[in-house]
Specification:
The protein is globular and about 90 Å long. The strands form 3 sheets. The protein has a 9-stranded mixed beta sheet. It has a 5-stranded mixed beta sheet with strand order 13-12-14-15-16, sandwiched between helices. A two-stranded antiparallel ribbon has the order 2-3. The termini are far apart. It is α+β, with helices and mostly antiparallel strands and 537 residues long. Helix content is 43%, strand content 17%. It contains 17 helices and 16 strands.
């Protein structure tokens, strides 16, 4: 049965005379036309913005955000024109990486992994999601950022928030009491992304941890040495590693009059001092966390202090703090740590900073955070921090939370905030206009004449079988000029050219792309010559 449906424009009741209903229809169409024209104009302006940013060589994150906005406008316009609404973009807080960006990332990973291996670390992997109860209650106020997965009628699961809690679960589950491991993998946080500052909802962490019962501060010092080696090797600018100790913080809160029940929440507030002023931190302590103004002022006398060994000595003589058992233990260990860091030759890059709190609940001892420094003008004595790129600390109680008998495995580790580092390195490459190679191809197999496809296939197969990274163009009879241009465009350093004469003489003409130098090489010696010229062992 067919059913007729009458269309009634918005703003009409259907009982008006026909000419009024017609005017209503035309008015509705005019409004729709105006809205479509407005969207088209917004789309044009957004396209201009994207083009301008690309011309100005803005950071990839800024361009990506504006391109996403452009795609949203296109989808809206398509919906207005009766086309299906579908936004082709990555989810909020995520991004794609093109070959050039991936080449930069691989270089960073190589430096980090080689440092971890140099210090004797093994590698492990864990699932990308864990039981929800595994992650619950381990991250303090940040627990709200955990991604919970939809219940499919089975286990309650969450995406991992970091690599430390899964590592502790792994140790407890496998009854491991001694390991030095690294783990590089993606983690997930339901945060408000700031992609221009390298802050995402999906991102990599690079973790190095030492688990086991050892003498005080020796593994802790090695973690800081590893962090120093990585940041120096990446050459991303001047940096400073801030250190503190949870025991010193807890002792400080106690002598200042903070109730035990508020230690962790006040700790999270103090941790904001690198982003906001002391006045803002104090207001949060008093207004939101319920501390008295006098207690907050006493905390302020301590948390604004930062120095090296001299400050540790000063606090060991402090009449109040030195009488607190926890604080004294932390200060004595901190003094020992600085002695080891001096022996490692890195103490000049380390600052004992009482404002460093790190909001995660599982830290029990030394904590640290690396920040990049931006040089200021001559009128300012100290450089200014432009962002944290790594952090870590000691967490002696975390494994025991998973062990049925509560057996503890002392642990200390460091986590490299890799996305921030990638953003900085990408900006450096863009600014320098450095050409980034996206492949490792050593040689292109080329032909000087037609009808030599079979010979090219034979030669490239010989090179592949000998471990040479080689390419050829996927055409039967490519022009020599096109083959040479391909090498120029992709950065391939050598060309192995065969022609009828070379085949008769049993040689291959090896061309150096950069200098255009050409030399005839016996076919049986070609592999060794390519390895020698590309420094491959």
């Amino acid at each position: 049965m067919l059913i007729a449906v009458a269309f009634r424009p918005a703003g009409t009741t259907g009982t008006e005379p026909a000419h009024i209903r017609t005017r209503g229809l035309w008015g509705w169409r005019a409004a729709m036309a105006d809205e479509t024209a407005g969207l088209a104009e917004a789309l044009r302006r957004q396209a201009d913005t994207v083009r301008r940013l690309k011309q100005e060589k803005a950071s990839p994150e800024v361009v990506a955000e504006q391109v996403a906005r452009l795609l949203e406008l296109k989808a809206q316009l398509g919906a207005e024109e009766g086309k299906p609404k579908f936004v082709l973009k990555t989810p909020k807080g995520t991004r794609d990486y093109n070959p050039k960006q991936m080449a930069i990332r691989e270089k960073v990973f190589d430096i980090i992994i080689s440092t971890f291996k140099r210090h004797g670390a093994e590698v492990i992997d864990t699932p990308v999601f864990e039981l929800k109860e595994t992650l619950t209650g381990k991250y303090g106020e940040d627990s709200k950022l955990i991604y919970d997965l939809k219940d499919q009628g089975g286990e309650l699961l969450s995406l991992r928030y970091d690599l430390t809690v899964p590592f502790a679960r792994y140790l407890a589950m496998n009854k491991i009491t001694n390991i030095k491991r690294y783990h590089i993998a993606k983690v997930y946080r339901r945060d408000n992304p700031a992609m221009t500052r390298g802050r995402y909802r999906e991102f990599y962490q690079c973790d190095f941890d030492i688990a086991g019962q050892f003498d005080p501060m020796i593994p802790d010092a090695e973690c800081l040495k590893i962090l120093h080696e990585i940041l120096s090797g990446l050459q991303i600018g001047d940096f400073l590693i801030k250190v503190n100790d949870r025991r010193i913080l807890d002792g400080m809160f106690a002598v200042c009059g903070v109730p035990d029940s508020k230690f962790r929440t006040i700790c999270s507030t103090v941790d904001k001092l690198d982003k906001v002023t002391w006045e803002e931190v104090k207001n949060e302590m008093v207004g939101e966390k319920g501390l008295s103004s006098e207690t907050a002022d006493r905390i302020g006398e301590y948390v604004l202090l930062h120095d090296g060994l001299g400050l540790i000595e000063q606090l060991l003589q402090d009449p109040k703090l030195s009488q607190n058992k926890l604080a004294r233990e932390g200060l004595e260990d901190m003094k020992l740590l600085f002695e080891y860091l001096t022996l490692f030759g890195i103490a000049d890059k380390i600052s004992f900073d009482l404002s460093l709190a790190r909001g995660l609940d599982y830290y029990t001892g030394v904590i640290y955070e690396a920040v990049l420094l931006q040089p200021q003008n001559a009128h300012v004595e100290e450089p200014v921090s432009v962002g944290s790129v790594a952090g870590g600390g000691r967490y002696d109680g975390l494994v025991g939370m998973f062990d049925p008998k509560g057996r503890k495995v002392p642990c200390v580790g460091v986590s490299i905030g890799i996305e921030r580092i990638f953003s900085i390195m990408e900006q450096k490459v863009e600014a320098s206009e450095e050409k980034v190679r996206t492949t490792e191809t050593q040689v292109l197999v080329a032909a000087a004449q037609k009808k030599l496809l079979e010979e090219r296939l034979k030669l490239i197969s010989e090179l592949w079988d000998s471990g040479i990274k080689a390419e050829m163009l996927y055409k039967k009879n490519p022009k020599l000029l096109n083959q040479l241009q391909y090498c120029e465009d992709t950065g391939i350093p050598l060309v192995a050219i065969i022609g009828e004469q070379e085949l008769k003489d049993g040689v291959v003409k090896l061309r150096v792309v950069a200098t255009r130098e050409e030399v005839d090489v016996r076919r049986e010696n070609l592999t060794e010559e390519i390895k020698r010229r590309t420094c491959q062992p």
